[in-house]
Design a protein that fits this description.
188 residues, alpha/beta, Dihydrofolate Reductase, subunit A, 5 helices, 25% strand, binds NADP nicotinamide-adenine-dinucleotide phosphate
C-alpha cells in the first residue's frame, strides 16, 4: 500500500483559488471533462483519505465523488450526513492504523488538503507527492507550504504532459519527517 498525495496547483503555486475552491475547478480544460490523468491515477487506488474541510463539500454534491473507493476522513467530529461506510477519526495515528488494517493491497489517494497532507507526512506515511501544475496564474489562495515544509526531501520520479496544457510531476518523499502541523488557534 502506497499513500499518494495528488494536488492540482496553479503555475504560481496555489492549490486553491483565491476563493478557496480546489485549483483544478478553475481550469476550463478540467471543467469541460478532461481529467488531468485522474482516471489512470485511480486505477491502482482502493481508498481515499482526506481532511474534514476537503470532505464536507462532498456531502452536498449531487453525485458521491468516490463510488469505487473506501473513504477515510480525519476530523474532530463526524459531519452530519456522513454515509455509514465512511471511516472518521480525530487521531491521525489511529486513522492510519484503520487504513492499514482495511487495506487489500491497493494504494491510497491522499486527496488533501495541505494540512492533512502535512499531518501524514509528519507521521512518515506519505510515499509520493504528485503535482498537477495548471497553465494558470491565480495571484492568491492556499499553498501547500507551510503545512508541508520546505525541507521535505522530494525525489523526482517522472513527469508527463497532460491534455489542456497541464503537467504532472511525481516525487517520492519517503524518509523525511516533520512536526505534526499545529491545530489553528481558532480550532483548539
Ligand atoms: N488543489 C487540490 O488538488 C486540492 C485537493 C484537496 C483540497 N484542496 C483545498 O484544500 C483546502 C482545505 O485544506 P486544509 O488544509 O485547510 O484542510 P483539510 O486538510 O482538508 O482538513 C483540515 C481538517 O482536517 C483535520 N486535521 C488535519 N490534520 C489534523 C491533525 N494533525 N490532527 C487532527 N485533525 C487534523 C482537522 O479537522 P477538524 O477541524 O474537524 O478538527 C482540520 O481542520 C480547501 O480549500 C480545498 O479546496 C485542494
Amino acid at each position: 500500500m502506497q499513500i499518494r498525495a495528488r494536488m492540482s496547483m496553479s503555475a504560481d503555486g496555489y492549490v486553491t483559488t483565491p476563493n478557496g475552491w480546489p485549483a483544478q475547478t478553475a481550469d476550463p480544460a478540467f471543467v469541460s471533462g478532461q481529467s488531468h490523468g485522474i482516471r489512470e491515477f485511480l486505477e491502482g487506488c482502493e481508498a481515499a483519505l482526506m481532511g474534514r474541510t476537503t470532505f464536507e463539500p462532498a456531502l452536498s454534491n449531487n453525485r458521491w465523488p468516490w463510488p469505487d473507493l473506501d473513504v477515510f476522513v480525519l476530523g474532530s467530529h463526524r459531519p452530519d450526513g456522513t454515509p455509514d461506510h465512511v471511516v472518521t477519526d480525530n487521531d491521525p495515528v489511529r486513522l492510519l492504523a484503520k487504513l492499514r488494517s482495511a487495506n487489500r493491497g491497493g494504494d491510497v489517494h491522499l486527496i488533501g488538503g495541505p494540512r492533512t497532507i502535512g499531518t501524514f507526512h509528519a507521521l512518515g506515511a506519505l510515499d509520493t507527492l504528485e503535482l498537477v501544475v495548471l497553465p494558470m496564474l491565480f495571484g492568491g489562495g492556499m499553498q501547500l507550504t507551510p503545512m508541508v515544509g520546505p525541507d521535505t526531501g522530494l525525489v523526482f520520479q517522472r513527469e508527463r504532459a497532460l491534455p489542456g496544457g497541464s503537467v504532472e510531476i511525481v516525487y517520492s518523499c519517503k524518509g523525511s519527517r516533520a512536526e505534526l502541523p499545529n491545530k489553528p488557534a481558532s480550532q483548539r
